[in-house]
Structures are given as C-alpha cells and as structure tokens.
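Sorry, explain these tokens?

___
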Amino acid sequence: MTAFDFEVFFDGACPLCTREIALLQRLDRRERIRFTDIAAPGFDAGPVGVGWAQLMDRIHGRLPDGTLLEGVEVFRRLYQAVGFGPLVAATRLPGISHLLELAYRRFAKNRLRLTGRCVEGGCALHSRPGPDLRIAS
C-alpha cells in the first residue's frame, strides 16, 4: 500500500462523481490522494469501518491514521491536497460553511436521481454480490 495524505471513497458508477474524481486525479501531481472506487468489482467495505450503503449515501474519506470523514469536509481535504488552500479556507467561513453543508446534503439525498440512475419505483444501486439494490426515490 502506498502512502497517502487522504483517501477518498467514491462511486465510480456515478457520472458526475467520476468527472470530479478525474479532475482531482489530474490535479494530484504529488500523489497525495488515494482514490478508492466503491463501485469496483471486489471492493470490500469491511476494512473501512462503515457499510457499503453508508459509503453510497454520502462521500467518505479517510486520514492515514484511520479517521473517517464525510460530506463537505471530504471535499475540503481533497481540494486542500491539490493546492486550493485559500479556496478551502473560504468554505469554512460562517454562513458559507452552513450553506455548503445544506447544499451537499440535498445533493447527496438526490444524487442517484440527478445522475440518471432512477426509474419508476426507485433508484438502482449495484451491489456485490447479488442483484441490484433499490432505494425509494
């Protein structure tokens, strides 16, 4: 396993998510981020310490000491790692921080629908092993 400053657990089956991850991979010239695709065959959530459904519910990240983070703080850590410190600092300002948290919660709740992975009756999630999981939309 290679050293990292921050590990991000992302949904590689999400078109919007993979675009942002691709951008971060290009910007991560010093290879400070470990990118872990939770949609990849063979991914095991067991060592992460939270279930796969929780990882799908909100973005998660992990510090080298094993500390798990989720939500907007994950994005802060990612963009800090690629050199956007001043921008990250602005996201911590009162008011801005609160708005970002609210916006992310709304996005996360509707992510599958917004990325075209819902049909009548629910949103399909791949699972390993077995059939697709469905969550109510």
Summary: The longest strand covers residues 6-10.
